[in-house]
Design a protein that fits this description.
The chain is of the alpha+beta class and 527 residues long. Among the domains are: 246 residues, 2-Layer Sandwich (Nucleotidyltransferase, domain 5); 92 residues, Methane Monooxygenase Hydroxylase, Chain G, domain 1 (Up-down Bundle). 39% of the residues lie in helices and 20% in strands. The strands form four sheets. Strands 1, 2, 3, 6, 10, 11 and 12 form a seven-stranded mixed β-sheet that branches. Strands 15-16-14-13-19-20-21 form a seven-stranded mixed β-sheet, with helices on both faces. Helix 2 crosses helix 3 and helix 14 crosses helix 15. It is globular.
């Protein structure tokens, strides 16, 4: 009897696998690291074959932990970062930076090598960009492809396949070149609502008239919950599964998290439109759904049916959130390696200092968190971070003060995004948080107190894996559709309300936050 689902979440540094039953219970989980090559500050690359091996190791270990036999696994679901995988005409790895090591065939989502190409895209002012907040981000696939064609023409000439990472894994698992509507609508300027989803005039304006032929990009896509096919014999052997296992269409990782925490509301339109998913990890992603198409500057989307049938999805986010806190720890004189234990030690000391110093704790220290650009709502990938109020303090307590105010800045950035979403017509009152940030007590407190919103933490060990499992459960026939699977597999959540006593202080912080943006702009405008 096939009654289990295996879900895989491929992040920036690891592949995670979980085994779920049809009620949404996580029976076993495993994680395996992924290497990242950083040849320069703006370049980041993965080896897609290593990613596949990490997926296989994680799946085998998760199934072992769950005591799940291959004969019980109905389906396999995949979510991943929006990284670009490049393969040659024979399907073999093709180095994205050239050189002898073909294995580095993947441009990681956070790679910013294509900043100039993104600016070229934005300068076209093409109508397609209305669905990208009117500004192209270097994290999207088209600028990365432009960079490849411009700077590595010899590799472009050899290319035969361009994949979003989730689609690469489903191809590797099934041999099918089918693509996910989720990945293509969100990251490839694919207009899923349009009769002709690929805009030929847009591709021509970018000099990418041949991208579809060069990358084997199909005209049609599969919806979330559709099946790509069954595992090939080779893939089944690698994964420790069997060829009776169905592989579901892939998802962008943040959207899997959104499905995991909001899928239970899919059959309740009035309720769903007030909910927001905040998926916090290396970066932060905010996802909301609407029955109507609502545009907003600096927001990604609206994308039609990127997750739920008949719904538009909009996304805002921060390019560096958890990565920014890691950076603060790593670069401070009293810092070091940003391990989970080190973060916990810092958080504990911050708690003590807040009690000792009260409202005066780090009150004159202010941070703009745009160290890796501003994804939303300014849509400025060239933006830089700002720290105001530093003293000659290289102590551990000095690190704690900077860490705290950086955490406040991250939460203020989320408030800024919510304010702009509200101006675009999104009436959001509840934040459902998923991802690694649920383990950071400072951020979880700040998200509710700084934004003034109710915060819900799902009662599951991994909401991103759960969302992928929900989609796979539909593909595997365990549920008829996504609303049914979302309602049947979501375990509920624990709600936290903002502390009204802190409102005035964070309102003041927000005014200063916006003032700091103005001052940064003034400085950069001086000739």
């Amino acid at each position: 009897m096939r009654d289990l689902i295996v879900a895989v979440d491929i992040g920036t540094g690891s592949a995670r696998a979980g085994v779920f039953d049809r009620s949404g219970a996580l029976l076993g989980r495993s994680e395996h690291p992924i290497a990242m090559r950083r040849p320069s500050a703006d370049h980041a690359e993965h080896d897609s074959e290593e990613i596949w091996r990490a997926v296989c190791v994680a799946v085998r270990a998760a199934c072992a932990a769950a005591g799940a036999s291959a004969a019980r696994v109905a389906s396999l679901g995949i979510d991943a970062t929006c990284s670009l995988v490049v393969r040659d005409m024979a399907g073999k790895p093709l180095a994205v930076s050239g050189g002898e090591e073909a294995r580095w065939d993947t441009i990681v989502w956070l790679d910013h090598r294509a900043l100039k190409e993104a600016d070229v895209c934005t300068a076209t002012e093409h109508p397609v960009l209305a669905h990208s907040g009117r500004v192209m981000s270097p994290e999207m696939e088209m600028p990365k492809l432009m960079w490849l064609k411009r700077h590595r023409p010899e590799q472009w000439a050899k290319a035969g396949y361009f994949f979003d990472l989730a689609d690469f894994v489903t191809w590797r698992a099934t041999g099918s070149n089918a693509r996910s509507r989720c990945t293509m609508a969100a990251k490839w300027n694919y207009l899923s609502h349009d009769e002709k989803p690929w805009s030929e005039s847009f591709l021509k304006a970018l000099g990418l008239e041949d991208v579809r032929e060069r990358g084997s990009l199909p005209e049609t896509t599969l919806a979330v919950g559709d099946a790509v096919g069954r595992l090939t014999a080779e893939a089944a052997l690698d994964l420790g599964l069997d060829t009776g296992c169905v592989v579901a269409a892939g998802l962008i990782d943040a959207y899997a998290g959104a499905l995991g925490v909001l899928g239970s509301f899919a059959a309740e339109p009035e309720t769903l439109e007030r909910q927001l998913a905040l998926i916090g990890g290396t970066s932060s992603c905010i996802v909301a759904f609407s029955r109507d198409r609502k545009f907003g500057f600096g927001m990604w989307g609206p994308y039609y049916e990127a997750v739920l049938p008949g719904w538009w999805l909009v996304e805002g986010g921060q390019s560096a959130a958890g990565a920014l806190l890691d950076h603060v720890v790593r670069t401070h004189g009293a810092g070091g390696e940003p391990s989970a234990e080190h973060h916990a030690r810092i958080a504990a000391r911050i708690g003590e200092m807040r009690v000792e110093e009260g409202e005066d704790f780090a009150a004159r220290l202010h941070v703009l968190p745009d160290f890796h650009g501003n994804r939303s709502p300014l849509a400025d990938p060239h933006a830089l971070g700002v720290i105001s109020g530093l003293a000659l303090d290289a102590s551990f307590d000095g690190l704690c003060r900077l860490y705290w105010r950086t955490s406040v800045a991250i939460a203020l950035g989320i408030r800024h995004i919510l304010e702009k979403l509200g101006e675009s017509g999104y009436a959001l009152d509840t934040l459902h948080v998923a991802g690694g940030h649920v383990r950071n007590p400072l951020l979880m407190e700040l998200y509710r107190d700084v934004t003034g919103r109710r915060v819900v933490v799902p009662d599951t060990g991994d909401a991103v894996l759960l969302g992928t499992a929900i989609a796979a459960a539909v593909a595997g026939g365990l549920y008829p559709d996504l609303p049914a699977a979302g309602a049947g597999m979501y375990p509920g959540g624990t709600a936290f309300l903002p502390d009204a006593r802190r409102k005035a202080g964070y309102d003041r912080d927000y005014r200063r936050f916006l003032a700091l943006y103005r001052h940064r702009a003034e400085l950069e405008a001086i000739d």
